[in-house]
Design a protein that fits this description.
- By secondary structure, the chain is an alpha+beta fold.
- 21% of the residues lie in helices and 29% in strands.
- It is built from seven helices and 15 strands.
- The strands form two sheets. Strands 3, 5, 6, 7, 8, 9, 10, 11, 12, 13 and 14 form an eleven-stranded mixed beta sheet that branches.
- A hairpin with a 3-residue loop joins strand 5 and strand 6.
Amino acid sequence: METQYGIIKAEERSLLPSTDLLSVNHKGNKLIARYPAFGLGSYLENIDAMKQQHFYHSRECSNLLFTPATTSESISVASHKFAELAKPEILDIDGLQLGLIALASEGIFANPLDEQGEPTTDEEILKTRLNTCKNVHRIYLGANDFGFAPYETFKSGEQDSGDFAEGGLARLLEHTEERTAPKLKEISSKPNYPTGVEVVELNEFEFIWPVLRVSRLFSDWHTWGRFYLFGDNIDDYFWDGYAFGVSK
């Protein structure tokens, strides 16, 4: 091929917005999350923002695309220096959207995805997935942070941090085989939340099962520092919040 001399025109490239990253330990492996979190919006809005935008961090991480964190991944990210980062910057302001849950007549499914990785409320699909799960202290834990906690394994309403962390819902969301969810216990501890925990009755007004929700954590200083766990509508614009995106 003939060598050409002269000006070599630069190739055009898109200028991506830059972002900081937060590296945390998640189940013994390194997990990378965008920091700050995506928001402020409904869960659907925050997920759409993840899917539509690429980011630049460094020469080694020059074209980053983030995917929605599972409930367990969100807890790992939030627990890193919680009192310095996630608490004052997210939970004390508008709350953290942990990830998807499906409320069913007998309990709660965490990270309810089908084989294509899409959210589902098809009870046949969800119950079939339970066949591949491990029964751990009365809850069921499977691959990709999928799991199920019967309602009788946890209680709603006001409670202390220890009771909350020992309940099936906390262990399900954190996807831990331990008898206590250690990260949620630390997050909801008395130094962070002097008046304890309240789990809002997630299935109180539901009549058609299952129904898709997003699990949400936030601080309520009207109750002098209480830690709340809600199950919000995924498109609820009234309860805007933040969601973590992770890079796989």
